[in-house]
Amino acid sequence: MINDNKLVEECLTGNKKSFEEIVERYYKTIFRLSYRLTRDYDNAEEITQSTFVKAYENLSSFNSKYKFFSWLYRIAVNQAINFTKREKNNEKIDERFSTDEENPDKIYDKVELKKKVREALMQLDLLYRLPVVLKHFFDYSYKELSYILDIPEKTVKSRLFTGRQILKEILIKNRV
Amino acid sequence: MENIDKHYIELINKEIDHIITPAEKTKLHNYLSDNKTAKEYYDALIMTNNYVDSLPDQEPSENLKKQIINSIDFSRYSAKPQKQHFWNLLFRPKFRLAYAFAIGLFLGIIFYAILVDNSNTININDVYGTIGINNEATTVDELPLKFSDITGKIDVKSVDKNFWFNLDLNSINKFDVFISYPEHVKFENIRLGQAKDIEISKGQNFIKTTNSGSQKYSLLFSQNGTGTTTLHIQIQQAGTVLYEHNISL
Q1: What is the DSSP secondary-structure string of chain B?
Q2: B65/A98 Cβ within 8 A
Q3: Do B45 and A41 touch (CB under 8 A)?
């Protein structure tokens, strides 16, 4: 498998297929990130699309000493932040989710729980939601988070710990 | 949270992030076992994170990838076709060998001209001339020769900035005459008198003639600058130096 940096080099020489390969590798992950940050399917697709457009436009500025996917996620995070600022109502919950095949009562409980957790997550300020989502769903290290969010590592920890704390309080308040 | 030491809040988060060391873990759980509030806080935070971790992923629509590709302007980094095509054509693999050969040939010619050419045999017809010799010339030196099978003499005469060697030589076997000279001296010409089958070659600041039988000829030089000019004449036969002499002008 060709590494990301090599693909970027090929893109810069006009190789369209190389960028298609990059999209193939990361579009689902960028979508999942965008969805977790916005909780809206259409918005998440829009953010994903604009992330790759922005990435392509700025490919020549990519510094190969950093991991490509970290750089891509950084763009996605910024796109999500910009989108959220434009869309003032960021508490819209999307009902499209799958459930396990179990008895109706159990399914309902699980669904309710997940709904409450999602709602709680969306009630978090983006400042805290970002590190929580990136840490929990993408398992980035503090150092990688520091690069993606463009904040010091110490600030990453502070926001992450505080975000978890606030989330806990919201869930308790919502009787989860 | 006000009853919980900040250090232990950090340890709790480190445990959630799976980066806690065994020693730190022991320290944390010892603390939790003695602090009920901290233990409740710990349990609630662990549960919160388990709920968050349990949220399923969402998958994008099947069209999203195509949508993304269609929205990108790929002309941004596309190569300039004509220029690239020309250069690609010029440097195609099969041409590179030809270029390498041409470069090698060129360098070989340069090398040959600089190093090899200096010891080339001069075509006597290229240097033969009809420069007249002034009768008011000064005799610089006269060298009688009699050794081995070689007999004869060499006169050195000069006028103004020109000087010449008159060689009158006889031998049965071949021998070589070397005349070496400094940088400011230039070999001008050979005047054949009664010489035949003479070989002459020019090197870096020297002239060599190969002689056998009866030979009579003159070697003409000119010089720049002032001051004393010293030349060196040497006669060799079969690789052995038979005679050598310095001439000062």
Answers
A1: -TTS-HHHHHHHHHHHTT---HHHHHHHHHHHHH-HHHHHHHHHHHHHHHHHHHSPPP---TTHHHHHHHTS-GGGG---HHHHHHHHHHT-HHHHHHHHHHHHHHHHHHHIIIIIGGGPBPPHHHHB------TTPEEEEEEEEEETTEEEEEEEEEETTEEEEEEEEEEEEEEEEEEE--TTEEEEEEEESS--S-EEEEETTEEEEEEEEEEEEEEEEEE-SSS--EEEEEEEETTEEEEEEEEE-
A2: no
A3: no
As a whole number of angstroms, the distance between CA B98 and CA B206 comes to: 39
Contacts of A32 in chain B (CB under 8 A): 57-59
**Tens digit of each residue's pLDDT, chain B (249 residues):** 557 888 999 999 999 998 999 999 999 999 999 999 999 999 999 988 888 888 888 889 989 999 999 999 888 887 655 455 666 667 667 777 888 888 999 888 888 777 765 544 455 444 444 444 445 688 999 999 988 889 999 999 988 888 899 999 999 889 999 999 998 899 988 888 777 678 888 888 899 999 888 889 999 999 887 778 899 999 999 888 999 999 998
> Rounded to an integer, what distance in angstroms lies between the CA atom of residue B139 and that of residue B136?
10
Q: Do A118 and B49 touch (CB under 8 A)?
A: no
Residue whose entry in the numeric block shows the structure tokens 């000064």? B138
Name the A residues in 61-80 with CB < 8 Å from any B CB. Answer: none
- N-to-C CA span, chain A: 45
CA–CA gap between residue A112 and residue B79 (Å, rounded): 55
* Contact criterion met (CB < 8 Å) for B44 and A135: no
Return the residue of B nearest to A136 by Cα: B53
CA-based nearest distance A34→chain B, Å = 10
Q: Is A27 on the interface with B (CB under 8 A)?
A: yes
Contact A31 B56 (CB under 8 A): no
The ipTM (two decimal places) reads 0.79
Domains for chain B: give ranges and CATH numbers: 58-100+130-248 (2.60.40.290)
Q: What pTM value is reported for the model?
A: 0.53
DSSP H or E stretch at residue B33: helix B22-34
